[in-house]
């Protein structure tokens, strides 16, 4: 019994959301391509997520292109719908233009509705003259890309410094420790400093793009929900810069001195979640999954960048034996950390995608799906390079050295070679793990940065449901017609429009030769959508 109660509780918390990622038009009254009664005085539009009323507006135009609304756009039933009033509409065709600002990610989305009043036929091709809404917001993606890379580098490097580098410091001799500490501090400060400058620059570009989009002042932008998230992000960035300057003044960076940067970085990546698709669902589970996914991605990609641009340069001035010992001691720890992160990512990624879009067909046929596949491909490239480090670098290097790093450091249970023994020949430079890993690890780091570029496009793109909805709203052919046959009857089927909202279904039944049936009382019409897991629904006949 308790298990069933727990399951019910989880379902209530998690739910099954309908996500579009950006406030796309779901429905309207009057409906798209529909007809309303003469004399109506208000138009209602409904959206996939909450919108900012101060930067959202509806406009109503008559058949001559004259604006006829009262300019009083307001919320209708909550923040997901708007209403505007007009004088009583006469017989004719009317166009409603919609421009709404998302309360989640700050994207400005446009749409249009064409309807008729009275018996006027609606020409859907008029929609072609309306401004199309973007499904991928490229300026926003470009603005946020440096910030995503920067926060990944800072968080990943900080976690790796504590989990990996902090455990190796004790293995350096006194003669090398001072040099190593100085070099490490320099390299760590350089990479995290550049990353934080990238985050700061990204913040300024984000607010600039939003100011341009909304055609207003930065102060007004900060007053929106997006602006509040941006302000939090900017404050955390300034705090991180303060921590960076504090660390820069320290002669030696111990694990404890990395903790303040770790805490602030964990808060910083949460601001990305606040602007993400998970938040648009208004459910806790997708938000948590999104945050965990961002965190583990930072561990993975940031860890690779830390190894390539901090650890290896730090070890450059050591002799070959010390260098090999440390590299071969770090690789297993690094591999273990990344393996754990990947194991969880494999769970969080598909689960989050299921919350956002469970229709596989929609994913594969959309721009969002293409970006997902590109992201998976780049991730597989990084995994392949990780396998190369493990099987083509680490194991052969240990074997060639004869267990040079010893049980106390590496754990392979072999003794270090006696370099003073007559006939001992050190490995060639090409055989050293340090040498073999340098170029591949940099290639992996660059691949990770490209992957983050794909992520930036994903978080600024419409989910398949929103993309399909936009395509349907912009196509000039909303109708569908087909002729079907059974053994004794012919069915002329037409649907108008085919899209979100009310649809009119006409079915004309006749004999094969075209003669009408005298009695069709036993006829049953059912509507279904297997792709959306909608079972057949019987509809009444007129």
UniProtKB/TrEMBL annotation:
GO biological process: copper ion transport; response to copper ion
Chief location category: membrane
Domain CopC: 22-115
GO CC annotation terms, alphabetical: periplasmic space; plasma membrane
Membrane topology according to the record: Multi-pass membrane protein
Location of the protein in the cell: Cell membrane
Spans traversing the lipid bilayer: 148-167, 188-210, 230-247, 259-278, 298-316, 337-356, 368-389, 441-459
Keyword annotations from UniProtKB, A to Z: Cell membrane, Copper, Membrane, Metal-binding, Signal, Transmembrane, Transmembrane helix
InterPro entries in the cross-refs: CopC/D, CopC_dom, Cu-R_CopD_dom, Cu-Rt/internalin_Ig-like, Ig_E-set
The UniProt record lists the keyword Ribosomal protein: no
One Gene Ontology MF term: copper ion binding
Residues of the Copper resistance protein D domain: 329-397
Name of the protein described by the UniProt record: Copper resistance protein D domain-containing protein
The species this protein was found in: marine metagenome
